[in-house]
Specification:
single chain; about 250 residues; alpha/beta; Rossmann fold; 7-stranded parallel sheet; 7 strands
Amino acid sequence: MKLKKNRTILVTGGSKGIGRSICIDFLKNGENVVFTYRKKDNFSASLENIQSKYGGSILGIRCDSEKMGDLVKLKKSFKKKFKNLDVLINNVGDAIQRSKFENSTDKLWQRTLNLNLISTIRTSKIFLDLLKKTKNSCIINIGSIAGKNPGSADSLHYAVAKSALKNFTKGLAVELKNIRVNCIAPSIVETNFQTRLSSKKRLMRIIKTTPLKRIGKPDDVSNMVTFISSSKASYINGQIIYISGGRQ
């Protein structure tokens, strides 16, 4: 796959799970990778330490994407190292907790929207000027199959946020014109997200309804992210790309 070497990539929420896999894939291709993490832990520290194995560079910056002040500080820290941005990957997101609608709280809805939608809107706007400085730049939003099919009876708050993210992606692609904007929407992926929020019974039920008879792996998503950011995908814009093993 032809990739422009030494591009600068920003991955929000990149210390673990899908975000971590995305960081490693770009690092393997010799890119400059910046990732954000909410709190310093073994995940963020170990990711920074693997740089020597590959040809790229990696930098972790602490940032709580729910806080506008942190996002402003993130850009200041970013600009100390880089003058422009090639690829922005809005990966931060979480269902936070399972809850039926009748039991859900206003706080849960607000935080879910902030984390999955508003943080993406803010980050995209804050870094827009740096993306404009770069030819062939792009934004990739990480969504969810839940944004298409909110079939779960205990995650409507998450499904609504991810559905809105789809429309934000499509609308922004039309408005920006010269910056490609796409959304990758996975089904269940083997990450800490599912360990916290899904029982074995729930996972088995989903596997049974998935034609490939398995859940996804982080690199199933990161492989698509790498492709969508490359010159091979230069005419793909405003799309919602489902990584679901055939699950509808």
